[in-house]
Amino acid sequence: MSPNSRIWFVTGASSGFGRSITELLLKRGDNVVATLRKPEALSDLSAQYSADRLVLAKLDVTKRDEVVAAFAKAKEAFGRIDVVFNNAGQNVLGEIEGLSEESARHLFDVNFWGAVNVTKEAVRFFREENKPIGGRLLQVSSRLGVVGGPSSGYYVASKFALEGLSESLIKELEPQWNIKVTIVEPGPFRTKIVQENLREEPQHPAYSRPESASSQFRTYINSSDFGGDADKFVAAVVRLVDVDEAPVRLPLHKRTIISVREKAQSLNDDADRYASWSDDLYFD
Fold it and tell me: Please, which residues have CB within 8 angstroms of residue 96's CB and are 6 or more apart in sequence?
């Protein structure tokens, strides 16, 4: 193992950003603990790279015991973890009135509670296992972790929840732990989460007009008209780790940049417009 190489822990490594970043890291000389529900999906990579470069770990992020076991496997293999890429997630298309409660709860189990399981173990590992202490935690959110979107309400809510949790975590961490957290917000990149891994539930009839925002979004997301290159996205993520002052957020995609700026402007506009409403709301 090169003294300059990093140890990465990647969740959701079977496809999409997880697969892309695993390939890139190995090519550039880093070492990877690639976690996924079906390790055989990376059999081609495990045949190409030795066990001192790539470790595969079976992991369903919704199962706390599997998360703990995967981190323990990383400790056994490499002795430390430098970066956790908290990426595992899923998307289900459906209106707020239309998506079944079962599907919505499972979405939260993966996108929020699964991410929480990884977050908690990452922080503990960085603080208590790493010598020297510290590490980088990259929380994969979305443009839809910044703004709402039709036919995606529960996905949006799961990412908003992850962003709120991550902001709070940043405020809780003790500076001497040397743990840096960044929320990564990709826009529409061409990955399997918006292709074969996307699950779409029947449209609620109240929203079925072709001109409705819900119908238009369903048409768009099924069009595969996504200009973002996933390999270039993960290269930007890897570049982030070399930045000493970690940003709270890293929006990546022109559409995400626009959405962030529009959201910030909207918040400022509302605060300015109604600031006087708070003038007389206090005890004398």
Answer: 153, 154
CATH number of the domain residue 119 falls in: 3.40.50.720
The reply to whether 168 falls in a domain is: yes
Q: pLDDT tens for residues 146-194?
A: 999 999 999 999 999 999 999 999 999 999 999 999 999 999 987 755 5
Domain that holds residue 39: 7-267
Based on the structure, what is the number of domains in the chain? 1
Supply the pTM of this predicted model: 0.95
C-alpha distances in angstroms, 282 versus 205, 257, 279?
A: 47, 38, 8
Residue 3: the pLDDT is 57
Task: Identify the CA nearest to 143 among candidates 112, 84, 184, 197.
Answer: 184
What three-state secondary structure class fits 31? Answer: strand
DSSP strand pairing (83-86 vs 7-10) = parallel
Q: Residue 282: inside a domain, yes or no?
A: no
pLDDT digits (tens, 9 = 90+) for 48-80: 999 999 999 999 999 999 999 999 999 999 999
What is residue 258's three-state secondary structure? helix
pLDDT over threshold 70, residue 195: no
Q: Which residues contact 233 (CB under 8 A, 6 or more apart)?
A: 17, 20, 186, 189, 252, 253
CA distance 123 to 169: 9
User: Would residue 273 count as lying in a domain?
Assistant: no
Task: Give the pLDDT score at 4.
Answer: 74
Is residue 277 situated within a structural domain?
no
- From residue 46, alpha-carbon distances to 16, 51, 77 in Å are 18, 8, 15
Whether 216 and 5 have beta carbons less than 8 Å apart is answered as no
Contact 24, 47 (CB under 8 A): no
